[in-house]
Amino acid sequence: MGTEVYRWRLSSELKSDLEREARLRKTSASAVLNLAVPDWLKQSTVNVGEDVEQRRLHEAASNCFGTFAGRNSRRAETGRQAILQRLRQGRRRFRVLPATRP
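Request: output the structure for the sequence above.
Response:
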């Protein structure tokens, strides 16, 4: 058995579930936790890798963030049409400025 003590607050529903599982297994609640936590930690480690991948994808996409250059004061009203027109004309006329970061 472990020698470290760790305390935290549980909802009454979670505490009841934990105690019920301990009774079914004819063991203590701490023994149930000692069985469950290592499995959860293994699963959680997989999610960390997914987070790293998500950060990598976000960083790659951030190179595409920016603003359109121009002097059209009605751009908010006509933006959709302007983008579609530029896409139809091809990429050579599509100028994107890098995003400013605070």
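The chain has two domains: 12-61, 67-98.
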